[in-house]
Amino acid sequence: MKKTFVLVVLFVMPIVAYLFFASGINNFGKLPILTENVANISDIDAKVVLESKITILGFLGSDIERQKGGAFNLNQKIYKRFYEFNDFQFVMLVPEGSEDKVSKLKKELGSFTNIAKWNFVFADSEQINALFDSLKTDLSLDGNLATPYVFIIDKERNLRGRNNDEDQGTKFGFNTTSVSELNNKMEDDVKIILAEYRMALKKNNANRQ
Questions:
Q1: Do 138 and 116 have their domain in common?
Q2: Nearest to 150 by CA among 73, 57, 71
């Protein structure tokens, strides 16, 4: 009897626990859609697309130096952890005329990691405001067309976030100046959306077989 109990504890319980948590992820591990049909960035830059990509979208504004701390936090805490995943990218909107400032930022970021999936899109104020407005958030851009918040956009151009965040209720974006927010919230949400698409891909492959 004791041997049977020990075997159950050692072998059966871990399997039951795994199935429980795996089932929980499958049933509840989806990041809510907060806004559908975010504006198509390829209308501004044909080389950058949101469709079929998981995108971290940001607005750096014309004062790059002021936003640099958040960019470095984002690079260290999110980009370096996930950039090797297929179909994952960063897209940063920057006002036209900031090309030299962006080149300097790219050089500094590149000294820490491979920045191949950092994309910088230069646009006029009207284009930047139109794209930001299409997110339909409770946030706003400052006078330099910048915000410290970044946003998760899925492969269908939907804004993903939280609709029951313990601090904000509806959470549209993540504050790059807060390392704790990147570590404790954004990292988890990026994991969830990546897992969601991996599970969908596995399901599609299984159905084909």
A1: yes
A2: 57
Same domain for 26 and 36, yes or no, is no
Domain CATH code at residue 173? 3.40.30.10
Q: How far apart are CA 186 and CA 97, in angstroms?
A: 31
**Integer Cα distance of 41 and 127 in angstroms:** 9
- pLDDT per residue over 22-52, tens digit each? 444 334 478 999 999 999 999 999 999 999 9
119 & 171 share domain: yes
pTM for the structure as a whole: 0.84
Cα torsion 133, 66, 121, 154: sign: negative
Which residues constitute the domain of residue 3?
1-30
pLDDT tens readout for residues 80-132: 999 999 999 999 999 999 999 999 999 999 998 999 999 999 999 999 999 99
CB 182 within 8 A of CB 174: yes
